[in-house]
2-oxoisovalerate dehydrogenase subunit alpha
Amino acid sequence: MLCLLFLGPFFATATMRLLINNACIQSFQVLQLQQTFDSSLEKPQFPGASAEFVDQLEFIQPNVISGIPVYRVMDRQGNIINPSQDPQLSKETVLNFYQKMTMLNTMDRILYESQRQGRISFYMTNYGEEGTHIGSAAALDPNDLVFGQYREAGVLMYRGFPLDHFMAQCYANADDLGKGRQMPVHYGSKDLNFVTISSPLATQIPQAAGAAYAVKRENTNRAVICYFGEGAASEGDAHAGFNFSATLECPLIFFCRNNGYAISTPTNEQYRGDGIAARGPGYGMLSIRVDGNDVFAVYNATKEARRRAVAENQPFLIEAMTYRIGHHSTSDDSSAYRSVDEVNYWDKQDHPISRLRHYMTARGWWSEDDERSWRKQSRKTVMEAFERAERRLKPNPELLFTDVYQEMIPSLNKQRESLWRHVQQYKENYPLDLYEK
């Protein structure tokens, strides 16, 4: 039969050839059915996932492993656990770490009390999270772009932001780079590549993804880092930012400060999964969980993430486990949702500043005399900046209407004229002598 097919019209009419072809096709089908087929060898061809077929009904458990481990370098007494992980930083560098962390702590205490006395309207402290700031900032290149949330003052301080600028921003005086148009602790510095902080949670995450994509297209040796808390990771913006950065392959470090509480909401009410680092693999990101109270662990993780993000054009997710010792802000009373004993434990037993101090003391780099002298000096430095900020005039009210359009548009000019008519009519309520002319 097969031979007749190839012999063609010499041995068969057209009708005969058609019948022979049909019979042949049926024969092939029978042969195929007779062949044994092992369905276990079938592989999924769906374009949306890399997987295998299974024949048992089983749902994936939330915690498929015992928990993502926490990377650390030092124990709570400042001892290096694994010598191969010691970053081998110089004495000068480590002292700089310590001085920046304690200076930040001193500034926090003074500005917090300033708000309590009615001198400024609002403040947020960084108590207990200083290690995440300094460790990560030290691992970055000065040219890297920073998107902060509102508790990254130490990153700016490490980059060289002067105390006078911190104070000017919180006091909204004439020296404020933002010209008094932002609420306190919403810092920003174009010169230091630190994008001005916004109040709404998580808006910086997709913005950072877009900036990192632009950096990638420029093909420069530059990365972007984006800070946020575990509460902000519950916002939709976080998921959009994660997905865009992974699919667009952006040189971006997502740095989550998991400090235990999103304002008054503990982590067990924020999520049911294994923290924030567990979300990385779902978006195709390399992830790590580090001890945020270990400045060396934070430094090592951020440095390696930064190196690979730039070299490989891919995002990284760092979850720094730490604890917010202070209230969320001056508008919060944390005693309403956590115990004093809990706070005291983290303040006295597992604090990033005391851990680094143990490390320095063990090496003979720091003493009690050094501590007393530095604390006195740092407080004096902060107080001098504080006093200068208080004496400085407020920005000229005209600045309310600038930096929006290149030229004053009619509607904005109308608002400006309305303001000044109001101020003149009720000038006893507007002490213009406190403002720059």
Q: What stands out?
A: The longest strand covers residues 252-258. The chain is about 45% helix and 10% strand.
